UniProtKB/TrEMBL annotation:
Active-site feature positions: 70 (proton acceptor)
Organism: Tahibacter amnicola
Keyword Hydrolase set for record: yes
Required cofactor names: a divalent metal cation
Protein name from the UniProt record: dTTP/UTP pyrophosphatase
């Protein structure tokens, strides 16, 4: 029995896209980076905490496998999570404009007796964005709830000059890596 410990509608949509059947678990894990914690370690730790919290809720279910994931945008060593408000989104998009950043997604699978994870790093180049374009984009509401204040699957697709890596990973769940991981747990789509 597969569970997705995530409130992200994108992660549900992505898992459904590859034909996996699963139930959703509501987990709420604080996303706080420790002083000096490298971005990759932070993303992996948070994903593991989400999967672990989910597993606690279903540990009694026979053959339960729980997925947890985290996605963050990294530029110049700074981690951009979900913007707190429009001013935060504006600051993020101004910094990302015309630059290449990393999107780090980590996914953990946890069952009784087995824990495995994959961390995927993509490089995304955003075209230079002028102030009017950024303002219009924020007004669509799309930046909210998304790491780095943009959604590759939405209007922001028009801003993406180059992507090296995995589209699904930027969206929140690296599908190739996740399905490979799940095959180690006997789960196939
Ligand atoms: C960069 C980028 C991120 N995102 C989203 C994916 C994630 O939902 C979100 C990053 O926040 P996360 O903290 O990884 O996930 P979440 O809070 O949405 O869901 P949960 O913790 O319950 O699993 O940003 C996009 O949808 N498109 C993008 O292009």
């Amino acid at each position: 029995m597969l569970y997705l410990a995530s409130q992200s509608p994108r992660r549900r949509q992505l898992l459904e896209q590859v034909g996996l059947r699963f139930s959703v678990l509501d987990v709420d894990v604080p996303e706080l980076r420790r002083a000096g914690e490298p971005p990759e370690d932070y993303v992996s730790r948070v994903a593991r905490e989400k999967a672990g919290a989910g597993f606690l809720a279903v540990a009694a279910v026979e053959r339960a496998v729980v997925l947890g994931a985290d996605t963050e945008v990294v530029l110049d060593g700074d981690i951009f999570g979900k913007p707190a408000d429009a001013a935060d989104a504006l600051a993020m998009l101004r910094r990302l404009s015309g630059r290449t950043h990393q999107v780090i997604s980590s996914v953990w699978a946890v069952s009784a007796g087995r824990e495995e994870h994959v961390t995927q790093i993509s490089e995304v180049t955003l075209a230079p964005l002028d102030e009017a374009t950024i303002a219009r984009y924020i007004a669509t509401g799309e930046p909210f709830g998304k790491a780095g204040a943009y959604g590759i699957q939405g209007h922001a697709a028009a801003f993406i000059a180059h992507l090296s890596g995995s589209h699904s990973s930027v969206m929140g769940l690296p599908l190739h890596e996740t399905t490979r991981l799940l095959s180690h747990f006997g789960i196939v789509g």
